[in-house]
Amino acid sequence: MASSFVVCRLRMWGRGSLVRCLQKVDTFPRRSIGTNVVAAQAEATRKDESDEKEKDGQKSLYAVQTERQEQAERSVLISCHSRTNENKFLKYLSRHGDIKTHFFYESYGMYAVVEFANRESVASLLEEAAIPSVSHESMVPFKSRLLSVSDLSSVDSANQKSGQKCRPQTSTPINELIQRLSREESIDRQITSLTEAYQLTEENSRLRFLVCSLLKDIAAAYFPECTIKPFGSSVNGFGKLGCDLDMFLDLDGITGRNVKMPKSGLFLEYQMKRANSERAVTQSILSVIGECVDQFGPGCVGVQKILNARCPLVRFAHQPSGFQCDLTANNRVAMKSTELLYLYGEVDPRVRCLVFTVRCWARAHGITSSIPGAWITNFSLTVMVLFFLQRRSPPIIPTLDHLRDLAGPADKSVIEGNDCTFVSDFSKIQLHSNTETLEQLLCEFFEFYATFAFSRMSVNIRKGKEQNKPEVAPLHIQNPFETSLNVSKNVNATQLDRFVALCQESAWILQQSGTNMPRDHRGGDTPAPWGLATILLPLQVAGVKSRKKKRREPASERIKSLLESLKNKNQQKMN
Ligand code: CTP
Ligand code: MG
């Protein structure tokens, strides 16, 4: 593929740097992003390369995952008192070693995440901790890194202020967000402000990895060398506070996948009995782990084993963190799509902002839902945004085929017959210099899908072009790696029609709204919603069947324009 792309040098942003980076969008530099390794294979090479890049201030998804996993293993989750005195609490714990970081949060009670400098401190703390003996209840004697402190010496008396500052783990309520956005001066600022308010915080990311690590301790009873990694929106850069925690039980380290004959000639007689298919093995593994989580998992409630789904999973709520968790195994294609989404989010800062805004807009109008059904999913919506960005002129992000063509030998990845190869070295990706603003892009996104030929065409990020639909489903979005699958197979015509009608209405409203905050909105305590804030409010869309909607003006406006037209007619007559 001949197209060339130029990327600006990006890093994993903190909240402040997001704004700074976006302010530079209009003068997008033509330079390369540097190496960023995310290949699934050649892990040793990958580690060296990502260490190398980290020195340069960049982090690949692989490097982020490794660092966060290691952090999580040095951390404990402690249920504490709402009046726990921070200083006394830290002094009490630091008897076991230096504390690197900590924070408090509330979720059905007060909790603290404490990261020690060394793993030995966690072992020392656990050694001291005892399983409570409750007279009227029997307890499963399972030691975990979810602890509770009953030592009242770290708790202040009722009338004293505790001094601990809680970090919020849920996103800003929509009404508050609308007010916040209405105070912004431009639609571009509204979009970055929304992204800042909704993206996962540093603490929330840490908590997600810690929950995976706690789960790993349970799974390790069966598979001592397993790892549990988060995937999906928890790590792909598009996660909103409160999103579910998708986890992947990775046994690749012990299955000897890709190993033909060990040097020693020895094979372990495996705990697993032989099974008919890989799916059957996955189901067995998840069944026993699900049972363990249900019986022994501290804080894990409402465990459901959904083993007959296309992708078998164990679903449960982790009460201490407040996360809804989905544990899967052998789901390596989803890991690849997570890496791909992460890559797209990293190559241009506008990608994440647009995805967040569209996701938030869709949720506000009930286009997406946390309940499974015929709705469009966040994953489908994200792919739709990516496709739209590939269709800009010049394109903002490259096609997946282009990323595959740029791949080196170490990037080659074929999973269950699906080609999941794409470049891991970001320095090879050259971006076109497209200077469209976020406001333009948002408006164009709505226009694009308001008029998209959904009845004939399929959304395809591999080719970056509409393709003829291979099936009759109302919405066809090709799965990027399992290309025979439609990621939006669940979506019915009613839901698609609602999406299209809302795109029409939102495009119309944004076109009417000026780029900057209206003059008469300035200065008030609670400014009237304008721009992006308006399209997050309930919209009056016509019956879902009618694609062309005529907007009714307020009565005062109608009378004003009637008087205007009468005046004009009279003037014409007089001339
Ligand atoms: N996935 C996939 N194919 C699908 C659905 C999901 O490959 N048909 C992968 C994607 O990598 C997705 C991840 O599984 O990101 C998790 O799916 P899901 O939880 O549905 O989406 P998220 O992106 O995590 O979004 P949300 O915030 O709604 O959880
Ligand atoms: Mg998810």
Structure overview:
This protein is an alpha+beta fold and 575 residues long. Among the domains are: 74-132 and 141-159, 2-Layer Sandwich (Alpha-Beta Plaits), CATH 3.30.70; 349-515 and 545-574, Orthogonal Bundle (Poly(a)-polymerase, middle domain). It contains 18 helices and 13 strands. Strands 5-6-9-8-7 form a 5-stranded mixed β-sheet, with helices on both faces. It has a 4-stranded mixed β-sheet with strand order 2-3-1-4. β10 (414-415) and β11 form a beta hairpin. The longest helix has 20 residues, at 493-512. It starts with 14 loop residues before the first helix and ends with a helix. The relative contact order is 0.11. Mean pLDDT is 82; it is low at 1-45, 53-57, 543-556 and 568-575. The structure holds cytidine-5'-triphosphate and magnesium ion (MG). Magnesium ion binds at residues 232-233, 243-244, 246.
Describe the global form. globular
The CATH level-2 architecture of the domain at 349-515 and 545-574 is identified as Orthogonal Bundle
Q: How many DSSP helices? A: 18
CATH top-level class of the domain at 349-515 and 545-574 = Mainly Alpha
CATH topology of the domain at 349-515 and 545-574: Poly(a)-polymerase, middle domain
The count of DSSP E runs of length 2 or more, i.e. the number of strands, is: 13
Portion of residues within helices: 25-40%
Query: What is the beta-strand fraction?
Result: 5-15%
Q: Alpha-carbon distance between the termini? A: 63 Å
**Main sheet?**
5 strands, mixed
Lateral arrangement of strands in the main beta sheet:
5-6-9-8-7
Low-confidence stretches: 1-45, 53-57, 543-556, 568-575
Name the structural class.
alpha+beta
Taking Cα atoms only, what radius of gyration do you get, to the nearest Å? 26 Å
Compounds present? cytidine-5'-triphosphate, magnesium ion
Would you tell me the overall average pLDDT?
Answer: 82
